[in-house]
Amino acid sequence: MRAIAYDQHGEAGQVLRLSEQPDPAAPTAGQVRVRVVSRPIHPGDLAGVEGLLGGPRQRFATPRIPGLEGMGVVETVGAGVRDLRPGQRVAFFPVPAAWSELVTAPTDLVVPVPEGLSDETAALMLVNPLTLLTLLRAVEDAQHGRAGPVVQTAAGSSVGRLVSAAALKHGIPLINLVRGATGAQSVAERFSTAADHLDG
Fold this sequence. Notes:
The protein is an alpha+beta fold and 200 residues long. 28% of the residues lie in helices and 28% in strands. It has a 5-stranded antiparallel sheet with strand order 7-3-5-6-8. It has a 3-stranded antiparallel sheet with strand order 2-1-4, with no helix packed on it.
């Protein structure tokens, strides 16, 4: 199978490469094999490639494949799997080596994708909502019961868009910061609220 891999820590653009890797093991009882269609790139993925998550940078004898989440289509199922079937669209997390064509995963880390949900959104649907809940709790703790606007950086990111949608629902006034005029226009069009959209 094809995969994005690296055999030493370093700048992602310098050490990541498209390569042929062995297929993952066939699914056993309670597992499925998924042909990956879409996978996000998170800052944490790149930090791992660059060796920024602790410990010295090093070279590896066997190439490593980054990524922990994504979505795809079930190819085969192991014994005893009843809730998932070949041909079904699914999202998965945390499953190592997501930046590859195939992954084999335990069924408790795989969920069906609702009809009508895009591949891109489905690839993010397991982690980003957890990030959103963490951020909302942090805002609640920081406000100590006092109302007031919240400044959000990277408002045009996938998590930023989730935060903006949740803020609308919960009546949290936002000051959204983005990198440029195009981002500001996109956020303003998507979330027409009284919040300020600043070009920063």
